[in-house]
Amino acid sequence: xxxxxxxxxxxxxxxxxxxxxxxxxxxxxxxxxxxxxxxxxxxxxxxxxxxxxxxxxxxxxxxxxxxxxxxxxxxxxxxxxxxxxxxxxxxxxxxxxxxxxxxxxxxxxxxxxxxxxxxxxxxxxxxxxxxxxxxxxxxxxxxxxxxxxxxxxxxxxxxxxxxxxxxxxxxxxxxxxxxxxxxxxxxxxxxxxxxxxxxxxxxxxxxxxxxxxxxxxxxxxxxxxxxxxxxxxxxxxxxxxxxxxxxxxxxxxxxxxxxxxxxxxxxxxxxx
Length: 272
Known about the structure:
Structural class: alpha/beta
CATH topology of the domain at 140-269: Rossmann fold
Low-confidence stretches: none
Mean pLDDT: 96
Number of strands: 7
Radius of gyration: 21 Å
C-alpha cells in the first residue's frame, strides 16, 4: 500500500473529463493538460464521465465483497485467506488482489454502488450482482463483532459484561474521516449483546469514548482493530497481556498472527 501511495500523486494520476458541449470539453481537456503530466481522456458526455467514477468504486466494492465472502467461508474451512490471496496475486495477469476486512467505509465505495443500483432501477433494470456485493460487505461489521464472542467463548468467558475496546473509528488509516465507518455498526452490535464497549481513535478523539490507548486497553477482555492506524499495528502481545486482554480480533488483518497466537492470546482475523 505504501508503495502505491508513493507512486501516485495529483500530477500523475490519469483523468477523465466531460463537458456540456464540445467547447467546454475542449477547455476542460486543455486545462488539465496544462497542469498535470498524466493522460487526459475526454468522454462523450457528462453522464459517461460521472459513470466512470461510479464504475471504479463499484468495481472495488464487488471485489472486496468477493474477498469478504471468501474470508467468511475460509474461516470455517481452516484456510488463511490472506495467504491464498497473496498466492493468487503471483499470477502475472488477470488477477487483481483485494483483501477482506471488517467493513467498507468512506464516502465513495459503500455509497456509489447505490447510485447506480437506484438509477438503473428507475430506468427498468435491476443490478442483482451489485446489490449482492453491498449485502455481503454490509455483513462484515456484525461478522467481526461475532468473532469477539467466539474468542471469549474459547476462553470460557461471555460477551455479556465483558469490556471490549474498539480501536479505530476512521474508515481508513491515518485520517480523521469516519464517514460510513464500520466501527459504529460493530459497537452497536456488541452493546446489543451486553458488552461494555469503549472506543478510541487518536484521529477521531471527539467521537472516542476514551482519550488514550492505555485507557482503552486497560482491563479489556477483548480488543478489535477496526482501523489499521500505525499506533495499533505496533501493539505487542506482552503489553496486551499485561492489561488483561485475552482476545484480539484483527479486523484489518494488520497484526502478525503467529506472534499473538504464540503469546497465548486468542487471535481472530478476517478469514485467518
